């Protein structure tokens, strides 16, 4: 976890970790809820969003259909409420199966071999050349 | 979708939006009535005036009438899966030289359940028939049953049915 963070910091990228997760790690509370501090990878986030939308719409339609045919308004509401709770349990916490395809960040030794291009040096050298001549 | 709180927020707002859509759909489907409606499709009711209890002129010059009447009604067709209660009231309507239409509620009742929606009863006027003035002697009065169907979600449906009419006596009793 630390190596990932330092690599991202060097490349100038944010790893997406919230500051809260960082603080809880320092305080040693990371063990309490690894489902909060562990993150979903990008493919997992997309999957969670699609699953959430589809499940909610399906439960809404199912609730309406069941309630209408039975003729019971509370049945519709309870079916939909149950569906919302089930969807929340599946898509909201950071389950491990949403983290199966993590991005492979660049190795730190590889990153050092290719330094970031310095734009100022090129401009300064272009300026200096005419003066010398 | 990168954190627990973000996904929770998205879930809650989207589920509330779908809840609003569900309630709108329930109200919309209400217009086509429940598919399990077994009884007749129209409201049936009748009312007859049995006796004029009181017909006098108040001190401020207004006529006042108290009646006893027989009411039988069957509003079971109005109940759907989206109905919370049905409010019925019996209104006396008549015309005077001063007002083109006078409507006075004589009796009302709240019906909570389909089983309670078919009954007949003999009642006296809950609210006295008080005129704006002194125009009721010998007046022809129509009895009209109004009802408000109040849904669990959605719009309220209002309708009425003309039941019968009667004539008030020529002189005060």
The amount of beta strand of chain A, in percent, is under 5%
Q: What is the molecular shape of chain B?
A: elongated
What proportion of the residues of chain B is helical, as a percent range? 10-25%
Largest interface: A-B, 33 and 24 residues
Described by the principal axes of the CA atoms, the overall outline of chain A is rod-shaped
| SSE sequence of chain A, one letter per element | HHHHHHH
Overall residue-averaged pLDDT value of chain B? 88
Query: N- to C-terminal separation of chain A?
Result: 53 Å
| Poorly predicted tracts of residues of chain A | 11-32
What is the CATH architecture annotation of chain B?
A: Sandwich
Provide the number of structural domains of chain B. 1
Strand tally of chain B, please? 8
What is the first-to-last residue Cα distance of chain B? Answer: 80 Å
The number of E-state strands of chain A comes to 0
**Structural class, judged by helices and strands of chain B?**
alpha+beta
Q: Indicate the CATH topology of chain B.
A: Immunoglobulin-like
Mean pLDDT of chain A: 74
Biggest pleated-sheet summary of chain A: none
Total count of helical runs of at least 4 residues of chain A? 7
Membrane topology (chain B): Single-pass type II membrane protein
Signal peptide (chain B): 1-25
Keywords (chain B): Endoplasmic reticulum, Membrane, Signal, Signal-anchor, Transmembrane, Transmembrane helix
Subcellular location (chain B): Endoplasmic reticulum membrane
């Amino acid at each position: 976890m630390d190596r990932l963070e330092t690599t991202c910091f060097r490349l100038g990228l944010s790893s997406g970790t919230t500051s809260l997760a960082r603080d809880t790690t320092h305080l040693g509370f990371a063990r309490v809820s690894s489902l909060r501090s562990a993150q979903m990878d990008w493919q997992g986030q997309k999957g969670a969003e699609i699953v959430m939308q589809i499940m909610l719409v399906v439960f809404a339609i199912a609730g309406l259909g069941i309630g209408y045919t039975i003729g019971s308004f509370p049945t519709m509401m309870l079916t939909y409420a149950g569906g919302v709770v089930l969807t929340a349990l599946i898509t909201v916490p950071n389950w491990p199966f949403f983290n199966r395809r993590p991005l492979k960040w660049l190795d730190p030794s590889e990153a050092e071999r290719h330094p970031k291009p310095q734009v100022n040096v090129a401009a300064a050298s272009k300026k200096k050349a005419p003066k010398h001549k | 979708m990168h954190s627990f709180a973000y996904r929770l927020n998205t879930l809650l707002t989207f589920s509330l939006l779908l809840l609003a859509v569900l309630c709108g759909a329930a109200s919309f489907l209400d217009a086509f009535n429940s598919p399990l409606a077994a009884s007749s499709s129209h409201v049936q009711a009748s009312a007859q005036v049995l006796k004029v209890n009181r017909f006098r002129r108040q001190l401020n010059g207004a006529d006042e009438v108290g009646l006893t009447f027989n009411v039988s009604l069957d509003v079971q067709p109005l109940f759907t899966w989206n109905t919370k209660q049905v409010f019925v009231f019996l209104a006396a309507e008549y015309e005077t030289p001063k007002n083109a239409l006078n409507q006075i509620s004589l009796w009302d009742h709240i019906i909570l359940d389909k089983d309670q929606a078919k009954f007949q009863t003999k009642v006296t006027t809950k609210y006295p028939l008080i005129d704006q003035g002194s125009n009721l002697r010998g007046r022809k009065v129509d009895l009209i049953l109004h009802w408000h169907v109040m849904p669990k979600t959605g719009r309220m449906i209002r309708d009425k049915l003309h039941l019968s009419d009667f004539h008030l006596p020529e002189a005060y009793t």
